[in-house]
Amino acid sequence: MFKKILLAYDGSKGAERALAAATELAKLHGAELSALAVQERLPRFSGTIDEVQEEKEFANHQYGRLLDGAQAQARAAGVKLKSLMRPGHPAKTILEVAKEGPFDLIIVGHSGLSGVWALLGTTAEKVSRHAPCSVLIVR
Q1: Is 84 helix (H, G, I), strand (E, B) or coil?
Q2: How far apart are CA 122 and CA 117, in angstroms?
Q3: What percent of the chain has pLDDT over 70?
Q4: pLDDT tens digits, residue range 2-44?
Q5: Alpha carbon distances (Å) from 85 to 10, 34, 64
Q6: Looking only at Cα atoms, what is the longest distance across the chain?
Q7: In the predicted model, what is the mean pLDDT of the chain?
Q8: Comparing C-alpha atoms, which of 113, 136, 125 is closest to residue 66?
Q9: Are 56 and 8 in contact (CB under 8 A)?
Q10: 26 Cβ neighbours under 8 A, 6+ residues apart
Q11: What pTM value is reported for the model?
Q12: pLDDT in tens, 102-114
């Protein structure tokens, strides 16, 4: 049923549960699994170009570590995981990557790192409303 699955991954507890569901679904369907980390906290204003570059390198390192951990977990479950890292607004970037894929399914945790809403995170809500494919929101 699903051939290409996109996992939105930020390292949060919700994302960890989504990773577990994504690896199981990828195994079940023999699907290609990709994890996307969206870098949204790059500096908007900086004193020098070097400061921007430092922040970018720090973000790449942090998100790279997150994705390496996700790859290790997927590998332990017997699933190959492709890592993607993009800068931008989380919901918008997830939707753009899903269209480019094209992916059959997007998997997101019900709330991410912000944890502001107790019911449903704004990224999960926006993705579910505007996705070009099916969306699984994992609690």
Answers
A1: strand
A2: 8
A3: 81
A4: 999 999 999 999 999 999 999 999 999 999 999 999 987 655 5
A5: 11, 10, 8
A6: 50
A7: 87
A8: 113
A9: no
A10: 5, 32, 33, 74, 79
A11: 0.85
A12: 999 999 998 765 5
Q: Is the pLDDT of residue 56 over 90?
A: no
Distances (CA, A) of 135 to 31, 103, 138: 15, 10, 10
* Dihedral sign of CA atoms 17, 126, 121, 96 in order: positive
Domains in the chain, start-ordered, CATH in brackets? Answer: 4-138 (3.40.50.620)
Residue entry with tokens 């890592």 = 83
Helix (H, G, I), strand (E, B) or coil at 86: strand
Q: Which two tokens stand for residue 101?
A: 């894929």
Rounded Cα distance between 121 and 115, Å, is 7
Alpha-helical runs (H) found in 1-139? 13-29, 49-76, 90-100, 122-130
C-alpha neighbours within 13 Å on the C-beta side of residue 30 = 1
Residues 34-69: b if buried by 16+ CB within 10 A, e if exposed: bbbbbbbeeeeeeeeeeeeeeeeeebeeebeebbee
Length of the chain: 139
